[in-house]
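Incident log, structure service

09:12 report received: a user says their structure output differs between two submissions of the same chain.
09:20 pulled the input from the user's history:
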Amino acid sequence: MKKKLIILLTVMVLAGLGYGLYSFLTQEWRGNDNLKYTNTKHSYIFQYSPEWNLMGDASADILMFYNTENPPGDGGLPVGIKMEIMTLENYDNLSLSDWVEQMSQNGPEQEIVMQENVMIAGLEAIRKTVAPTFVDLGEGAPISIYFIKDNYVFVMNYLGREPDYSEQIGNFELILKTFNFN
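09:34 re-ran on a clean worker, output below:
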């Protein structure tokens, strides 16, 4: 049950990430109109679109963003988009590739559409896009990004339904582009 939940969360995050990239490539950014978030517990900052709602405070281990009036429910495919940033302790001191492999093994089988090494805040990261599970519901391809800083694994997930998924991908990419540690 726990493995299925982790897999479902990963799929949801991956979908959200693909949507953010598309929006970033198709929208013009408002520059100083963007909102800024600072996490005091894990010492990171980033900018995000004022079109998105934020759930979580300055010391949150898990943040959630969404573009609908009400937050999406737990599990399943959100009505609009959902993006999460999770900060998890790396108790076993796994390498980044081992951690991503363990996440893949503990979740439902997914078809990997793309997996690439990227940089987030000057750190090596893995960006993974999987095939949508709910194609008949208009799901975009879930995106997950994983990276390690100190003894924490950071997981950023992007998922959602079309047309929001494609329209908001730029907002997700804005977070990735501006994400940095203090």
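09:41 both user submissions now match this output. Likely a transient worker issue. Closing.
09:42 reviewer note: The chain has four helices and ten strands. Residues 13-30 have pLDDT under 50 and may be disordered.
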